[in-house]
Amino acid sequence: MTAPVEPAIALRAVCKRFGAVEAVRDVSFRLAPGEIVGFLGPNGAGKTTTLRMLAGIFPPTTGDVRITGRDPMRDPEVCRRAVGYFPENAPFYPELTVLEFLRFVARAKRLARAAREEAVGSVLEQCALGAVARRRVGTLSKGYRQRVGLAQALCGDPPILILDEPTIGLDPSQVVEIRELVGTLRGARTVLFSSHILSEVEALCERVVVIAGGRLVGEGTPAELAARLGRRRRVLVRVDGAVAAVATAVERVAGVVTVTVRDDLLSVDGGGDDDLVRAVADAVLAAGGRLRELREEPLALEEIFLRLVAERRED
Amino acid sequence: MLSVLQKELLLYFTSPVFYALAAVFLVITGYLFYTNLHWFVLFGGENLVRGFWLYQFLDIRRLLIVLVPMLTMRLVAEERKLGTLELLWTYPIGDVGIVVGKFLACFLVTSLMLALTLAHPLVLSGIHALDPGPIVAGYLGLVLLTAACVACGLFISSLTDSQLVAAAATYGVLLFFWVLTWNEAAVSEGWMRWLAPLSLFDRTAVFAEGGIDTRDVVYFGLFTTVCLVFTLLALESRRWRGVR
């Protein structure tokens, strides 16, 4: 019998209070080694507070935080070596050059003297910073500064990366660059990253964790979350003529929850029945609609996110 | 700790503020050396220690109060503002390493400025025989005062994210400890007995006269340690206050 694999990151019933403010309430989730997981939530949901507890900046008020099975407050040395942390807004020392900063990071992370230059060279290459290595970080563009932030997190090759909004404030091409960079880490490292840009999370992560108001409101693959919401399928129908009649007919189909009409396009949200597409097609034809387009669309993460957050607010 | 020390030294030596302050400090101490010596030659009598070095050391002491808050104000306040303090907290340095590294860096930089003023006794020794004892005692007093002022400035810098507030408050605290015993008439004798031992600047008087009183050394050691422990507590307050 093999021993169960220790989760890279585990939170159990974690609460964090600052005075009267309860920033995180009873949050539990875990990440297996090698997973890339997105951490979603509206502003003020407690994302940064949770990530700071994982990075060992402060302990939870109650509950347990574990990094590869160890408590970051009791074993700070081991946990801090295991975690590369990218704080929100990628803070930097404007007067230091990229090279000076990364050399400081390598020393601060207590890499052996002989390994430091190699580690710095490796992250400079990995984050494509070679061309600006001797420039002061304060003179670099936002995109480069974010890469410097990622480079410091990656320095020393930690097995776990915790990234707080790594793509915030970047232009679309820079977002793609950072996404590709994080994508290269797949398999080798466990990555937990928070983001507002849901397409980022969809492109990179197998799984998402959603929090709102300090509480966990959803966890799983986007498909699982959609299923939990009871709207597993969305069918898009484009018809010529008699749109209103078709819409009425489709609304009567078993399993259909809502039908939204925009011009000649009907958006049909329904339950998990595999026959939904076929049943909708039959209903359109029976109502005299001339079918131009019929396709099934997976529920976008953005929508799942908004619904989960809305559900939390309704509680 | 060494990584923080090295980074802080790098930041000091790449910053024009350090060179501007060092230049001002050295020009003014040089000018004071000249005028104090001039005064001694004209009116000072025979005793070089009481007639010259005493005044020179007391003058440098005043300059230190002006100098140190400008060097300590950025130590933690700037890192809070930039958000880099959060980075330091995630490296395997520890709060003690952060505090000691920052303290030592600023202490070494200020001591370097003081060391450059050793040119004055060197110049004087070329034209007049010097007893090194009182000069060693005088500089020891300045170095201990520097440690206390730096620790005080570091603590206050750890309470705010504004460098200006840090500098202003450090000036306030240091000046308060200076003027504590100025007006003996306004404070009752009972109070004075409690206040006098606390006065940071009275403690340098014996050193300036060429003597070393162990009680003064212990006082400076305690003052410095208490300030460093308070800095540590200020950093650790993130556990219940959050990162601010």
Structure description:
The complex is a heterodimer of chains A (315) and B (244). Chain A folds into 2 domains: 9-226, P-loop containing nucleotide triphosphate hydrolases (Rossmann fold, 3-Layer(aba) Sandwich); 230-298, Alpha-Beta Plaits. In chain A, 36% of the residues lie in helices and 28% in strands. Chain A contains 11 helices and 13 strands. In chain A, α4 (113-126) runs antiparallel to α5 (142-154). Chain B has helices at 2-13, 16-44, 48-72, 77-82, 84-90, 95-116, 119-127, 132-157, 163-179, 189-195, 205-208, 214-236, 238-241. Chain B has one domain (2-236).
In short:
The complex is a heterodimer of chains A (315) and B (244). Chain A is α/β, with parallel strands linked by helices and 315 residues long.
Output the structural class of chain B. mainly alpha
Determine the CATH topology of the largest domain in chain A: Rossmann fold
Number of separate domains of chain B: 1
The helicity of chain A comes to 25-40%
Oligomer: heterodimer
Would you identify the regions of chain B where 5 or more consecutive residues have pLDDT less than 50?
Answer: none
CA(first)-CA(last) distance of chain B: 23 Å
Strand content of chain A: 25-35%
Query: What is the mean pLDDT of chain B?
Result: 88
* Chain-averaged pLDDT of chain A: 85
Radius of gyration computed on alpha carbons of chain B: 19 Å
Which band does the percent of strand residues of chain B land in? under 5%
CATH class of the largest domain in chain A: Alpha Beta
* Beta strands of chain A, count: 13
Structural class estimated from helices and strands of chain A: alpha/beta
Q: How many beta strands in the DSSP annotation of chain B? A: 0
In what order do the strands lie side by side in the largest sheet of chain A?
Answer: 5-6-7-3-8-9
Q: Spell out the helices and strands of chain A N to C.
A: EEEHEHEHHHEHEHEEHEHEEHEH
Largest interface, counted by CB within 8 Å of the partner chain's CB:
A-B, 33 and 27 residues
Low-confidence stretches of chain A: none
Q: What about the largest sheet of chain A?
A: 6 strands, mixed
